[in-house]
Structures are given as C-alpha cells and as structure tokens.
Design goal:
alpha/beta, five-stranded antiparallel beta sheet, 43% helix, elongated
C-alpha cells in the first residue's frame, strides 16, 4: 500500500497486488483498507489524486495491475488515459449529494460549488437547482492544476459562503486553510455501500482474469508439452501458434513462421501442405520430406466464419515407438527374455547341434516348435532365440497353456472387451498377443490346448489379427510365435487330438532338444555350475565333485533332465556334512531317486568298463547290488583280502566293504541297490533319511 505523495504506507501482502486504488480522500482509503482485510483482497493504495501524482502513477504502472479503482475526476482522467486495463469508479449516489446539500442549506449561506469539471459537476448543479438555491450558487470548476489554483484564489474571497465539493486531498487542504476566514465547507463523500461495490467489482475482474490466465496457461502447457506437432492458422492464413514438437518434427524454428502468412515468400512449403485446403480431416497419412506423418486438421468456426484451423501431426515411427513402450510397461515382472545362447551350458555334440540350429532359426521370423522332455531347457532356448532375433527390443511374453482352464486361457491370450462377461474389467483388457506386438509370444505346453483354442490360434497365425472375447473390432498384431511341448504332437495329430493345419503352422521350423541321458558328458559342466549356485544359495561350502562322483551321476538316467539335476545338487548342498563322504551321500540320494522312479531310472550301461587290467574289472552286467558285490569281491581278490586297500581304491569306507561282504549272499538279485536301508544308508548315517 502507498500513502500520499506516492510513498509506501505499509508492507505489501504476500500475494501480488493486482488492484491499484488511487485514493483522493484519507477517509475512503481507510474504508478500502478495511474491506481489503475483510475480503482478503490484495490492493495497493496510492494516496493522492490527480493533483498529487495519482494520474501519473497509474499511467506509469498500469502493466503491474489487472484493474484500477478511483473516484471523481481522478477516475475520469485515468480512464481517458489508460485503455490496457479496466478502470472502476467509486460512484457518488444521489443520497451522497443530498446529504451534503442538506447540511449546506441548513447554514443559510450563499453556495459555491467547487468541483472538477467531470460528470460530477452536472449532478451538483442539478441538486443545487432542485434545492431552490440556484440563483445563489457560484460555480468554481477546474480541469487541471493551474485552473485549480485560479479557482482556489477565487474561493478565498468568498467570505460568508458555504463551499460544496467532493471530499479529496486538495479540497481538504483548502478547507484547513480557509475555514478561519469565514468560509464554510460541506463535503460530499461516497457511502460505505458504494465503496464496497466498487472494490468487489474489481475483485471479480481479477478473479475472472485469473481464471482466464489459468485456462490459457493450461492450454499453453498442453500444447507445449504435447508429443504431437501443433500448428494453428487464422482465417487470414497467418500462423498463430507453433509448438516445440512441431519445431522438432519439421525442423523449423517457431520464430521463423509465427505471425507470417502461409503464402508469404520464404514460408516453408511443408506448412502449406499440412494446412491443405483447411477442411476437416482425421488420421490422414501424409508423406513429408521422407517421413510418414499422421495428420489431423480441425477448422474452428464462429458465426459461419472460419476463425482458425488447428493442425496436429505426429511421425508414424514415433507412434509405433510409443506403442511398443506402452506395451512393454504393461508387461508384468518376469515376462522379459533374460537368457541368451551363451547361458546354455554343455559341450556335447547333441547340444551344440541344437544350439547351432536355434541360432539359424533366430535369423528368421518363422514359427518354431520346440520338442523335448520336461526339464531339457525349452524356455531357455526360446528366450535365446528371441534375444538373438531382430525382435530383441520388442516384448517377450510367455504363458503355460496347461496352467489355465480353457475360458481363462482364451481371455488371457486374446483379451476381452468391456462387459464381455460378469466381472470383466471396465474398459476391457488387452490379451497377451496384443502385449507381444512387434515381439515374441511363447506358448509352453501347446499340446494341452483345447480344440476351440486351437482354432483361434490358427486364425492368429494365418491372418495376423485377433478378436477380443466379446469384442467386435479386429486388431492387427505382428507377433512371432514360439511354442514348446513335451508330447509327440505328430502322434496327437494322427490320433485326431491336435489340428494338423495348426501343427504345420506352429512347426514351420522344428527343434528337438536331447535329454540329459543322451548327453551325459554335459553332466560335468552342469554339475559344476549347479554346485556353485547351490553353495551361494545355501551358504555352505561344497567342493567340486570328483570324477567318481560324476560317474555316479552319469549312471542315473535323470528322467527330469537338467532341472532334476539342478534340484538334486541343491539338495546335496543342503545335506552336505564334513563327516560324510560326498560320494556316499550321492549314493544315498540317488537311491532315493531310484526308488522313486523305478528300474527305468538306472542306465543299462555297466558301472565300470569290462576290460581286465590293473585299473579295470570285468563284470557281468546285472542288478546293481549284484554288480557292487562283484566289485568288492574282485577287489578283495586282487588285494588278498586287504579291506583297507579295497576301501581306498574304491573310494569307500571300510564299514561299507565289511557290509558288502556280509550281504554278499543275501538278496543277491535285489536290483534296488540304492535303497535307504541298504549299505549306503548305513554308511551315510540315519540323519539323512527322508
């Protein structure tokens, strides 16, 4: 706020003062201050009317405010000089005039009207004539400072008169100087109601302007931060807006085209092409300087007159990139391909052949059907194919077809429309084929899907499009399909359990993964890796397995393949104990596996080669217990019954040798040589029984 002579009268409010009040009277200033406090209105008050710099201050600072409030002639002069912002006048009501004239007439003196030559003057004269004192009043009007001084000198000669004037600083100063000279004063002041009305009107203007500014700023933010290029052209074909995205896409600076006509010399032809004829257009594909743009053109009309044309556009490649990003963000954790061919462990010829074949498959976009037993690493190969393909930057989505019932599997694969069924998510849901757009979908255990799902899968593979459950809109998808099964799909086709056309679509390329029993040489590198992993997981130190340990593992058929081997070695790491030999513990755990899986879990190959020399024995192939008994007996023969030497050379304990001797004649044909109550169990200790 400010006081007379333009000096501050107190601290300004925290909020910016958007209303300037040019005061001509201290009493009105005080009323305005009270109103500003009561209604929480930021107002700056300049104390001093037209004769004390109020007009000059308002002109100089007009751009700092949204509205100016004043009264009388000062308000009239400010309004005549300022057109950039509204000026509100505190009006004087007829009651305000009558109150002043009533006081003056009661004094029964000649009247003199002292006033700025404005709309107030006619009102004063009208009231004077109405009062019946018209012949007696003198008129002292002024329009500027020099006239004021002239009229002031004249007023000083009117002893015995009552001067009627609007309450303002100059009149108040004159009253203080002339009252002692026999001149009376009756001053006109605005009522509290009129002051409040003017201030609230100013507040309303500020709030309205604030809303408009907020709306304009909101729209500016939307336009400036839009990923689409936005250009607006008015009815005279002049560019009125050009956002940053338009600058980026068209490689044109906004300053070079804003406020210029499309047909002016030097204007880029791209703008004329985008604007076209200005007619309404949605999703029009336009090729511009080698870029494919998707263009929308919206004409804005008012009273059948074209006011503006708004053109929005975006590169098709940007739209595709955003689509991929959106789809990727929708993928839940774990649906990203993490493995590569380098992660596959093994050196066997069978495995190397499978890897080389899969690498060649990765160079194409054809469907691949991977066949292999449970645990052979089918998903490991699928993820490696995806990561080696040109779709590596796209999404990877995997689903186990056997894990879901038919109805749920259908909605998961193809999605569903809004209201497709009770409990459907509002707005519908994208299926996994949509999420895998421009990427890969992995259908595990494909042999388990129903005939109905088989039909829908065939359409996706043939037409590259899906229809959501309950939907009526076809959605194009670009997806590579990799599938896997542990069943003989060809046999299922022959038996009528699987569609032959789908089988051939899924198996454009076929890959068979060898079981672990066909590549036993890979057990050593696999075991080394799994032992290290298990040691890290359990926190227990487990030394690398010996050659004898590996031979024991190679004797087992591993029906669960690599996965079973991993779980077995994890169990071995958990149960490992320094007081028990690793080979004994492996024997115990293999016994449990043999008992669980039966005779077929044991390889038909002999434990040792059948050549007689110092390091080899010739054995008759038969039940394991019988072969073990043969080994112990032959070694006892070679060492002349030295049980300590036999235990050392076979890598077993003397107790084991002794037990073998005791049971040599018992259960000679029992093939379950690894059972939990056998010699290995007694050697390893009862604490490892499960």
């Amino acid at each position: 706020m400010r006081t007379s002579e333009g000096r501050p009268s107190g601290d300004r409010r925290a909020a910016r003062s958007r209303i300037l009040f040019v005061s001509i009277c201290p009493r009105v200033s005080e009323q305005v201050r009270r109103l500003a406090k009561d209604f929480d209105i930021p107002i700056e008050i300049f104390e001093g009317g037209m004769t004390k710099g109020g007009l000059q201050y308002a002109i100089a600072h007009q751009h700092d405010y949204d509205v100016i409030v004043s009264q009388g002639g000062t308000a009239a002069h400010i309004e005549s000089c300022i057109t950039s912002i509204p000026v509100i006048t505190i009006k004087l009501s007829i009651t305000d005039f009558l109150d002043a004239f009533e006081r003056a007439i009661e004094r029964d003196r000649p009247l003199a009207l002292f006033c700025v030559a404005s709309e107030v003057l006619p009102e004063m004269e009208r009231v004077a004539r109405f009062s019946g004192r018209a012949p007696d009043y003198k008129l002292l009007a002024y329009s500027h400072k020099e006239e004021f001084e002239t009229q002031y000198r004249l007023a000083a000669t009117l002893q015995g008169h009552t001067l009627i004037g609007v309450s303002c600083y100059c009149v108040l100063d004159m009253q203080a100087q002339l009252e002692g000279q026999g001149i009376d004063f009756a001053l006109i002041s605005p009522s509290q109601h009129n002051i409040q009305k003017a201030i609230l009107s100013a507040k309303s203007i500020v709030e309205s302007k604030g809303r408009e500014e907020l709306k304009a700023q909101r729209m500016k933010s939307i336009v400036d931060y839009s990923a689409q290029g936005i250009v607006s052209v008015d009815g005279r074909r002049r560019v009125t807006s050009f956002n940053p995205a338009a600058e980026r896409i068209l490689d044109i600076r906004a300053g070079a085209v804003l406020s210029r006509g499309l047909d002016e010399k030097g204007m880029p032809a791209a703008l004329r092409e985008l604007h076209g004829d200005g007619d309404f257009q949605l999703n029009q594909l336009v090729k511009l300087d080698g870029d494919d743009l998707l263009v929308n053109r919206i004409p804005v009309r008012a009273n059948d007159r074209l006011e503006e044309t708004i053109v929005s556009f975006q590169r098709v490649t940007d739209i595709q990139r955003l689509e991929i990003k959106a789809r990727m963000q929708l993928l839940s954790k774990g649906l990203v391909a993490k493995h590569r061919f380098e992660d596959i462990v093994g050196t066997s010829a069978a495995l190397r052949t499978a890897i080389d074949r899969a690498r060649r498959f990765a160079e194409t976009s054809a469907s691949v059907l991977i066949e292999g037993e449970t645990g052979t690493g089918k998903e490991l190969f699928v993820q490696s194919i995806h990561n080696a393909s040109d779709r590596r930057d796209g999404p990877f989505v995997a689903i186990n077809c056997a894990a879901l019932p038919e109805t749920l599997l259908e909605s998961e694969l193809f999605g569903y429309a809004d209201g497709a069924f009770t409990g459907a998510k509002r707005g519908g849901k994208a299926g996994l084929f949509e999420l895998a757009h421009n990427g890969t979908i992995f259908l595990d255990e494909i042999g388990e899907v129903s005939p109905a799902i088989q039909s829908r899968l065939l359409r996706v593979l043939q037409e590259r499009e899906i229809l959501r459950v309950g939907g009526d809109r076809v959605i194009k998808v670009n997806v590579r399909v990799l599938s896997a099964t542990n069943k003989n799909l060809y046999q299922m086709v022959r038996e009528g359990q699987f569609r032959d056309d789908l089988f051939f679509r899924l198996g454009v390329l076929n890959l068979r993964l060898p079981p672990l029993r066909e590549r036993t040489e890979d057990i050593r590198p696999l075991a080394d890796r799994f032992v290290r992993m298990a040691s890290e997981t359990t926190g227990k130190r487990l030394d690398d397995l010996s050659a004898g340990d590996i031979r024991l593992l190679q004797r087992y058929a591993w029906p669960g393949n690599v996965r079973e081997l991993e779980y077995f070695l994890e169990k071995l790491a958990i149960l490992a104990d320094a007081s028990v030999r690793t080979s004994d513990l492996i024997g115990l755990l293999l016994g449990e596996h043999t008992r669980a899986h039966g005779r077929d879990a044991v390889s038909p190959r002999p434990l040792l080669d059948t050549t007689d020399d110092d390091d080899r024995l010739t054995l008759a192939v038969g039940p394991m217990r019988d072969m073990q008994r043969q080994i112990v007996e032959r070694m006892l023969e070679r060492t002349n019954g030295n049980k300590v030497e036999v235990a050392r050379r076979l890598g077993i304990s003397r107790v084991t040798v002794w037990n073998k001797m005791k049971e040599a004649d018992a259960e000679a044909r029992d093939t379950d040589a690894f059972r939990t109550d056998g010699p290995f169990a007694r050697a390893a200790g009862a604490r490892f029984r499960t």
